[in-house]
Amino acid sequence: MNKIGFIGTGVMGKPMAMNIVKKGYQLIVYARNREKVEDLIEQGAVFAESPKLLAEQCKTIVLSLPFDPDICEVITGDKGLLKTAAEGSLIIDTSTATPANAVAMAEASGVKGVDYIDAPVSGGVKGAIDGSLTFIVGGSEQAVMKADPVLGAMGKSVYRVGDVGTGMTLKALNQIISALNTLTICETVVLGEKLGVSAERFYEVLSHCAANSYHLQSKLPDFIIPKSFDTGHRIEMMIKDLDIALDIANQNNVDMKFSRTGTDLYREGAENGYAGLDISSMSVYLSEKSK
Questions:
Q1: Number of structural domains the chain divides into
Q2: Is the dihedral of CA 83, 88, 94, 95 positive or negative?
Q3: Is the C or the N end of the chain the one with fewer CB within 10 Å?
Q4: CATH code for the domain in which residue 36 is found
C-alpha cells in the first residue's frame, strides 16, 4: 500500500485523515499527543514520534495546521520533515495560512528537492467527514498532478489556481465572503425574530428566494435553528483567516471597509465569550446585544 503521512488532526484534519485510511492507504500520523489519534491508530494508522521520523516512512505528507509558526516548525524545525524527507517527496499543505509562508515553505522544501503545494480546503467539517471538500491549489502542474490521488481521497474537486501561494490567496478571499455572508444571515435572523419571524420560517421561505445561499443552507439548519454551535468553524479561527485577508489587502492598497467592520464584529463576539463557537453563534451574541 502507498504510505501517506498526516500531521494536524484537528476538527478538519481528523476526518480528512480518516478518509485517507478508508481509501486503502497506509496512514503514518504524527500528533503532539498520541491519545489524540488513538482512533486513527485503531483503524490501522501507524504513529510516528516526530515529523522527522514520519518523513522517513513516506514520500507524500499532508498538513492541516492552524498557524504559520506550526507549519514552519513541522517542515523546517529541528525535528521537521525536511531533516529526513527524501528527494522527490511531496508536502500537501491544506492549512489556511498566509501566502508568504507558503512561498517560504516551498523555497525551503525545494532546496531539499521536495515538492510543496498549498492546497487549502473549503467545505467545512461536513465536507471533511463526507469526503466532499474542494481544494484550492497553488503549485506546479507536475506537483499538483502527483497530489491528485491523495486529494481525491479527501475531496471531490481540485482547482489549480496558479503557483505556490495562490491557493492561500484565493482561500483568504473565500473566507471574507463566508464571514460576511454568515454575519448578514445572523443579523437578519435576529431582526426577523424581533418581528415575529422564527428562524425556522426564515429558513423555509428564504430557501426559495434570492437570499438563498450555501451559508443559509448550512448555518441555519445545522447551527442556528438547533442552537448548537460546538462544531463548525470557530470565531477565533475566522478572525485569524480574516486578518490574513486584510493583511493581503493592505499590501495591495485595497481598502476593505465591509471586511474590516465584519472582523471587528467577530472580534467583539470573541471577547464576549463566543471565541470557541461556530461563527453562526454571532446570531446569539447579536440577539443578546439587541435586548
A1: 2
A2: positive
A3: C
A4: 3.40.50.720
What is the chain's pLDDT, residue by residue, as a tens digit (291 residues)?
Answer: 599 999 999 999 999 999 999 999 999 999 999 999 999 999 999 999 999 999 999 999 999 999 999 999 999 999 999 999 999 999 999 999 999 999 999 999 999 999 999 999 999 999 999 999 999 999 999 999 999 999 999 999 999 999 999 999 999 999 999 999 999 999 999 999 999 999 999 999 999 999 999 999 999 999 999 999 999 999 999 999 999 999 999 999 999 999 999 999 999 999 999 999 999 999 999 999 998
Q: Three-state SS for 211? A: coil
Looking at the structure, tell me whether residues 12 and 154 fall in a common domain.
yes
171 is catalytic: yes
Give the cell for residue 281. Answer: 453563534
**CA separation for the pair 123, 26 (Å, rounded):** 25
Q: Give one word for 137, left, alpha or beta, with left for phi > 0 and alpha for psi -120 to 50.
A: beta
Set 36, 171, 227, 240: catalytic member:
171
